[in-house]
Amino acid sequence: MAKKIILLATFFLVIAVVLGAMGAHSLKAKIPADSLDSFKTGVTYQFYHSFALIIIAILMEVFKKPGLKYAALLFTIGILFFSGSIYALSTASLSGINAKPFGPVTPIGGLFFIAGWILTFIQFLKKS
Fold first, then answer.
1. What's the whole-model pTM score?
2. Residues of the chain whose pLDDT is less than 50?
């Protein structure tokens, strides 16, 4: 399971680098500054939580905490919902899609991040 989580995390990291470069170079002149800032926030949180996935995979192996796989799942959903919705919202003017339905998805993704961190905390409160 840890190997699958690391593979997923590195995939998310590749995407974050590509999107970060796209934001820094291509989008800079095409979307408003506040949208670009939002886009950067999506990339930043994708980076943080991709690294968190790698850490979770390592912790699963070192401390033999199989329940951490649920924290990894929560972080994964968080990346998809939080960062994904921000990407859709901030580039809506370019894509021409109606991104308004994505607005409520962003805080839900944030809640998944929070839940993942709380679950990680709880896993280490438990006795081994």
1. 0.95
2. none
